[in-house]
Amino acid sequence: MSTTKFQGFAVTSSDPAKWSTVEKIEFEPTSLKEKFVEVKIKCCGVCGSDCHTLHGSEMWGGAPLLPAIVGHEIVGEIVDVGKSVTDLKIGDLVGVGAQIGCCFECEMCLNDNETYCPHLIDTYNATYPDGSRTFGGYSSHIRAHEFFVFKIPENLDYEKMAPMLCAGITTYSPLVRNGAGGPEKLRIGIVGLGGLGFYATMFAKALDNEVWVFSRTDKKKEDALKIGADHFVATEKPGWNEDLKYKFDLIICCANSSKNFDIGSYLSTLKVHKKFISVGLPEEPFTLASMNLVPNGSLFGASHLGSRKEMLEMLQLASEKQLEGWVEKVPISKEGVQFVLEGADAGRPRYRYVLTDYDKEFS
């Protein structure tokens, strides 16, 4: 039988100073619709979006809906299915990412671009058309449309796989959409080696490209090379870009801060009409002048998550090449959730926190 009351760790106060303080609550989930499955959660990765949402950033929609249960790097086991579910069954090990709904009818949805649907529904801090709320993965269970639920490869550690459901697909999609998985080997630059930069580096290399990591200092050089980078550049060194002008086929920017960010130097390293794609979503805007783009006709853009098609491809690639994240596992509890939220907000994990031991916390 389907569970009618779920448990989760929620922020319940509108006081900005208590953004990371959670309480264990019971909540009523959305109904188990005919194409929905119910997942008993085993673990959940901790994303920077969780922190931005709870801080009430205007760029992220302002003050969160309360009670707010975040988390969208979810792995668990299906325990119930709607009457029209066809691709999944009870007992399947599955993942749920940052998107949980769309209209299924618009041009975007019909062309593997559902992540750009005007009626996109986020996995948490959103509302279904019937008025029910979405609650994230810092909880005992989640219900989701089967289209947004993905089988997890059983040959890998599922706790290390969880961050791929957001951080992984967020970087994999712009890579393959810009030729990284094609017949030609590309020279790709990855800006910033944090939670996103880790996966951008790993997937760029797994797709058989020449990978360069750009970071302010040499502090993460050894990690970058272990993850898969062929080269590392510390951008605090004056003139770092001079020998790299017109050299890159693609740059994926994973930086989450635009403070003192010299975007012109990065753009100068691109070949003619090649792209700089931002996935890090800094709170403050980039300072970009038209003349930064003119010398090589470079293009500045962004990317949002990835399609179901890309998610399945990414998970298959991970399975075939034994790709796993570097994670710090933290048992879920009131104290554990506060620890990972504040740690992620400060950029402390190497390279992702994952909340674990759900069976011990939730009855």
Automatic annotation (TrEMBL):
User: What SUPFAM superfamilies has UniProt attached to this entry?
Assistant: GroES-like (SSF50129), NAD(P)-binding Rossmann-fold domains (SSF51735)
Q: Which residues form the Alcohol dehydrogenase-like C-terminal domain?
A: 195-319
Q: Which cofactor does it need?
A: Zn(2+)
Per UniProt, residues of the Alcohol dehydrogenase-like N-terminal domain are: 36-154
Q: Which InterPro entries match?
A: ADH-like_C (IPR013149), ADH-like_N (IPR013154), ADH_Zn_CS (IPR002328), CAD-like (IPR047109), GroES-like_sf (IPR011032), NAD(P)-bd_dom_sf (IPR036291)
Q: Which GO terms describe its molecular function?
A: oxidoreductase activity, acting on the CH-OH group of donors, NAD or NADP as acceptor; zinc ion binding
Keyword annotations: Metal-binding, Oxidoreductase, Zinc
Q: Which family does it belong to?
A: Belongs to the zinc-containing alcohol dehydrogenase family.
**Protein name (database record):** Enoyl reductase (ER) domain-containing protein
